[in-house]
Design brief:
The complex is a heterodimer of chains A (about 200) and B (about 270). Chain A is mainly α. Chain A has six helices and no strands. Chain B is about 10% helix and about 30% strand.
């Protein structure tokens, strides 16, 4: 009974978010029309400290860059395995951005990080991925695209793991720490997958 | 006079800049393809490597070392030539691709075989480009060859070390238990697993080809969710007593359990 209620609530939330997303999200280049929404955006009422805030703000920026890169790969990658991974990254990280922004807003904080890179040196640094790097991805073509994306995105997800480990050590908010744990695990696994794909790309 | 002032200001700027940039933990990098030893550990192609599995980007030591592990005791596995390191088949030259987690200002990128430096790329202290790759001539070598690649950082005394095992002139004869020719099939990216040094099944975070979770579309038969499994849209799984339907095909990963990634899984009952 309780479980059924919970499931129903989750389903209802999913539907609402999905409908909301249809109105505002830009058309995704992927063939899959599944709306990229449906996370459990529940109130985050636990206590939090500055590290939680910094982690979420930095991760919002990091994720938005990652989604931008993955969107390009979901369209342009030559490897089917890479395309599939990139599309799943777009869906999951888009959801996580929604969740993180909602927590920050409910805490009365800005919902992304100041992009002055020097401010974040003590927190592991802002992600290494820059506009310049994303531009190099847009201009890469053919076999060169997969190689470029794999190098950039593997580094990008290493940054995410480092930020998540910092949160695990210094944050106090249970939901933020749970998110950090899943980011640590899933990005470590993505790196593993991408290194396997890299090893199979024919040497130039 | 004016030049002196400019130079001093530049020097100040350099110092200030390096203080900021040198401190983050993310100031690292390694060679991803052909896979370095640390990449083979992180991908699961070689097991039981120890801590390096989780931080292949961290093989950092003082400049001038000649070891694969930067003389870091915790990474000693990298320097054990007796391990069955997979060697990648390459032609008479190959391109080394780097993964960078911070684009450190760089003096040089050096490649050695034995004591001989076979290539050097001088960045003159500049920040590397968005992606770094170097084509290196290997025509003086054939068969199994261990290349030591070194990234020398400009604004610290440190360097990053990688050993890359190659089979130069590939294909013929030598023992190269890795990298079958890629085929367009979906599982082509999974490297052949070299003989594990121990049969321990403990490493749940390693994989070869993803299993396929398909075949249960439509009908009732949901299977239990498993990591490292390829599911397609419409597949049904159970996790913690809840049934989910796959919203978007993907290979499942640890940390991507259905209740966490509802973008990929729709709870249906």
């Amino acid at each position: 009974m309780t479980r059924r209620l919970t499931a129903a609530l989750i389903a209802a939330t999913t539907l609402t978010l999905a409908l909301a997303a249809c109105g505002t999200a830009p058309a995704t280049p992927t063939a899959d029309p599944t709306p990229p929404a449906g996370t459990n955006v529940a109130a985050n009422t636990g206590e939090h400290n500055d590290n939680d805030v910094m982690f979420l703000q930095m991760m919002v920026n990091h994720h938005e860059q990652g989604v931008e890169m993955a969107r390009i790969a979901a369209e342009k990658a030559g490897s089917d395995q890479l395309k599939t991974l990139a599309a799943a990254v777009v869906a999951t990280q888009t959801d996580e951005v929604t969740t993180m922004k909602s927590w920050l807003t409910s805490w009365g904080k800005a919902d992304s990080a100041d992009t002055d890179i020097n401010l974040h040196a003590d927190h592991g640094g802002l992600p290494a991925t820059s506009d310049e790097e994303i531009e190099s991805l847009r201009s890469a073509a053919g076999a060169d695209f997969d190689t470029t994306f794999l190098a950039l995105f593997t580094g990008h997800q290493h940054n995410a793991v480092e930020m998540a480990k910092t949160e695990a050590a210094e944050g106090v908010n249970p939901d933020a720490k749970a998110l950090a744990k899943s980011i640590d695990e899933s990005r470590t696994a993505q790196i593993q997958l991408m290194l396997q794909i890299s090893a199979a790309v024919p040497a130039a | 006079m004016r030049r002196t002032l400019t130079t001093s200001l530049l020097a100040l700027g350099t110092v200030a800049g390096s203080l900021v940039i040198a401190s983050p933990a993310s100031a690292h990098g390694y060679i991803s393809s052909p896979p370095s030893r640390q990449a083979n550990c992180a991908s699961g192609a070689v097991k039981d490597c120890g801590a390096i599995q989780y931080e292949p980007q961290s093989v950092e030591g003082p400049k001038g070392l000649t070891s694969c592990d930067a003389d870091i005791p915790g990474f000693a596995a990298l320097d054990e030539d007796s391990r069955n390191w997979p060697a990648t088949d390459v032609g008479k030259s190959t391109t080394f691709n780097w993964v960078l987690t911070a684009r450190h200002k760089t003096t040089t990128w050096q490649y050695f075989v034995g004591n001989k430096k076979i290539a050097e790329f001088n960045d003159n202290g500049a920040q590397p480009a968005a992606t770094v790759r170097h084509q290196v001539d290997l025509s003086a070598y054939s068969g199994r060859t261990k290349v030591l690649a070194v990234w020398n950082i400009a604004d610290t005394p440190m360097a990053f070390y990688n050993c890359v095992d190659l089979n130069v002139g590939g294909g013929g004869g030598s023992t190269t238990p890795v990298n079958p020719a890629p085929s367009p099939s979906q599982t082509s990216a999974a490297p052949v697993q070299p003989p594990a040094t121990s049969p321990s099944p403990s490493a749940s975070a390693t994989t070869s080809a993803p299993a396929t979770g398909g075949g249960n579309t439509g009908g009732g038969g949901a299977t239990t969710w498993k990591s490292w499994t390829a599911y397609k849209t419409g597949d049904k799984v159970t996790f913690d007593g809840v049934t989910y339907e796959c919203r978007q095909g993907h290979t499942t990963l640890p940390g991507w359990e259905p209740p966490i990634v509802l973008a990929l899984w729709l709870p249906i009952k």
